[in-house]
Write a structure and sequence with these properties.
alpha+beta, Alpha-Beta Plaits, four-stranded antiparallel β-sheet, 4 strands
Length: 137
């Protein structure tokens, strides 16, 4: 009997915080349709073999926490050109989950531009202003 060669497994644990908005930052994600929109997006994420952990946001932008399949996304979201994606470790999940869950209260203190710029700074991401979202505050 010959010994079958074992193939190494792939083990990943990737949590990605996505931030994006409707084209031109239009305030289209009204409170009365948020649940349906977020559920639809969650379905897309699940159908692409990722884990939708939480989705929440404001009328002009949303936050998504995804447990990412290592195959990641084959395409891009078509709400706007560009998006932010921020990676978190498992020990940080409760903090980022609560941050996303409390978007409405959070945005009483800080607008989207301030929030997004703080994320870029926190993650030490270099950027050129011409490639940022259009902020209409």
């Amino acid at each position: 009997m010959t010994e079958e060669k074992m193939k190494p497994g792939v083990f990943t644990q990737m949590y990605i915080h996505l931030v994006f908005s409707p084209k031109y930052r239009e305030r289209l994600i009204r409170k009365e349709i948020q649940s349906e929109v977020f559920s639809y997006i969650s379905g897309i994420i699940t159908n692409r073999k990722h884990k939708s952990i939480i989705i929440n946001g404001m009328p002009d932008h949303i936050h998504i926490l995804v447990g990412a399949n290592p195959n990641w996304f084959k395409g891009k979201f078509h709400w706007q050109d560009g998006y932010g994606a921020f990676s978190y470790g498992k020990s940080q999940l409760e903090t980022i989950y609560n941050y996303i869950a409390n978007q409405e209260a959070h945005h009483k203190k800080r607008n989207f531009r301030e929030e997004y710029m703080a994320l870029l700074k926190k993650f030490d991401i270099k950027y050129d202003d011409k490639y940022l979202f259009e902020f209409f505050e």
